[in-house]
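Thread title: Can someone regenerate the structure for this chain?

I was given the following input by a collaborator and told the matching structure tokens would be attached. They weren't. Posting the sequence so someone can regenerate them.
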Amino acid sequence: MRAQRLLSILLQLQVNRRMTAGDLARKLEVSERTILRDMDALSGAGVPVIAERGSGGGWSLIEEYQTRLTGMTPAEIQSLFLARPPELMADLGLKQAQDGAWIKLRASLPAAVRRHAQFVQQRVLIDSRGWRDASESASSLPVLLDGLWRERQVRFLYENVLCEAAERIVDPLGLVARGGTWYLIAARDSELRTYRASRIKEPEVIDVPARRPSDFDLAEYWKRSAAEFRQKLPQYHATFLAKAGVMRWVRYRGWRLESEEQAGDFVRIRLRFDAEEEALQFALSLGPDVEVLQPALLRDKAIQASRDILRLYAGEER
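Best answer:
Regenerated them for you:
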């Protein structure tokens, strides 16, 4: 356990160049006292770790030092060679580069380890796209990625939900894929904004350095932004009395089903919808197998819609 932690400290310092004891402690989930003891152990073993005091200080390795690791655990191999979603790499224009990188990595591994990597790749595949995902344009992604790599501003036309386009000039900060949908995180007018990549048209990188907030963390921003977005989504709740025979269809929409309880021969259910119209469509789609209980206004609209349907089929509205 300690040997693995010492190795992790070496890799962290090699990648990040300098880290405080507090940073290492949080990363490895141990106390700072433990990190200080580990540093003494590394120094005693001849590893050139350097402690720098004061503001901006921390632990580092001498600049020329590089670890050369030939041993990898099975779990580490699995984490490296689980197949990345090829569609997302293709969206970014990196599919060939990724394939080339994995070939070189496999070639550098010992034969036994290489066989284990091939074993993993043939048994686990990650496909990030759902069965009903609509195909979204990803044509803007290579240009956006170019702006990110070069740290330059990007100009583009951005379409709103009504397909009305307006010019935007932004400081690109990151790209996020959620399922099969890509989003650009960028700063504009000193505010962080999220743009759906499929609505970005005619992007171009302009020769103006992009400004990146010193405290910006892409993963943390996306986590917070996604939570805020979910909270702002429209919600409409309705309660129904359903026959047991249709519950399989209700549960098929399981992510909308908030509660269910037996009520004699029926099941009392509460569902979440985006709007009242959607709840009304649900009630009418199952006909006499569901009865609207609440809200009262939805119940009245279901009754009126049922009467309108009867008049239509009776020929009274032709």
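Residues 197 and 226 are 16 Å apart (CA to CA).
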